[in-house]
Every structure is written in C-alpha cells, then in structure tokens.
Amino acid sequence: MNPLPVDWIIGGVVLLVALFIAKKIGWLDRIRVFFLQTREELLKCSWPNREELRGSTWMVLVAVTLLGTFTFLADWFLGGFMIQEILLKWIGGAGGTG
Description:
By secondary structure, the chain is mostly helical. It has 2 domains: 1-44, no CATH class; 51-98. Helices cover 82% and strands 0% of the residues. The longest helix is centred in the C-terminal third of the chain and has 42 residues, at 50-91. The radius of gyration is 31 Å and the shape is elongated. The relative contact order is 0.04.
C-alpha cells in the first residue's frame, strides 16, 4: 500500500488548523446560522407549480428567439449596407481624401 503524499498530509493539517481557528473565532457558528436562516427564507418563498413554470419557460424561449432573430436580421442588413453603400463608395473614390 502506498503512503499518502506529503502534500496531502500538509493540506490536511492546514485544513484542520483552519477549522480549529474558525471554531474558536466563532465563524463556524455564524456559517451554520447563515445556512439555517437561508433555509427558513427559502421555505417562505412561493414557488411556481409545474404549469406556471412551463408557461414561463415558453415565454422566455419565445422572447429570446424573437430578440435573437431581430438582432441577427438587423446586423445582417446593416452590415451589408455598411459594406455596399459606405465602404465601397469610399474605396471607389467618392469619399477619399485624394
């Protein structure tokens, strides 16, 4: 059986010392109270049922699809317009500094 690597032993000792110090300072108790209070607050929340969640999911998917399509089309149209109307005219000499 292979012995544990030295860095694992050092890491374990450092972890134990850190936990001991955290316990003495009172951090572990504060962390425990934080998680207990968080659980209490989550129990107070009104969670959606399956049907409400399904409806909200479809609304989000439709909105993302519409916004994505609009962004794509606007980029495609304006990008093509920029290349054809502005850059090509400028390169062709209409807007040059000649």
